[in-house]
């Protein structure tokens, strides 16, 4: 099956299902994923992933419900800690004046709206615009309750690929509040409509779910576009001397350029590892392998369910780039190097 012997990579940390966060407990009655989010790759639904994610989350640092991160940025947690959401969805009030820009609206947990309303009232602040990084419901689910509380915001909601009544966001579009300029940076891949926002005055970037405060994004709708977006973010950080990242989940990223390098290399190494399964089969013999055979070759049978969705993403990207092909072989479809 495998064209050469490979060293098996280390598996996930020891499992401890008793330490799992539950967004359903924290935000009862609110689903953590919408029907669209439940489409492939469904990585978190594979055997072993719940235990792995729970064990990972058990070691996360504590984040307060409200944190004034700088003179321009206040983070308000969404109140939805979970296997996929880490400590919860980060929402941000941005600006230094009485009117602030809100980035993302959480999952729809009542505690988030209560916390937000109380903070605004205590500091005599108001929201001028709502910017949504992407469509996933743990970032947009709080919007209906927010608009019910502040109906005047119904005409001030912005999102790439907007829903009815919302405004679109163009790459490079700017949004201003007192002391603050946010510039949109189109970075699809995690989702097809994903936007980051550069805080021009502070050398910071709101990274959405493209780069998280802990670990990496599990859900990637289009790996090829995601990796290109990491390059776009890296170039922006380099050109504009951006150091700080404010992620959609997890703690503040103190060295965003370094983190971008780490995760770009992570995916590049994964690609090389997949291609290594075909060594000896290029051009002449065109030895072919199924996705399952590649996964077992690289990671072993016990990791098949966990690694399979990621390998399928990598193979799809390699096919788009003309590096591998897919052909029918009896009842199966097999990959081969081009």
From TrEMBL:
GO molecular function, one term: hydrolase activity
Metallo-beta-lactamase domain residues: 88-249
GO BP terms, alphabetized: secondary metabolite biosynthetic process
Keyword terms: Hydrolase, Metal-binding, Zinc
InterPro entries named in the record: LACTB2-like_MBL-fold (IPR047921), Metallo-B-lactamas (IPR001279), RibonucZ/Hydroxyglut_hydro (IPR036866), Sec-metab_biosynth-thioest (IPR050662)
Metal-binding among keywords: yes
Keyword Zinc (UniProt): yes
Cofactor: Zn(2+)
Family that this chain belongs to: Belongs to the metallo-beta-lactamase superfamily.
Name of the protein: Pc16g09730 protein
Source taxonomy: Eukaryota, Fungi, Dikarya, Ascomycota, Pezizomycotina
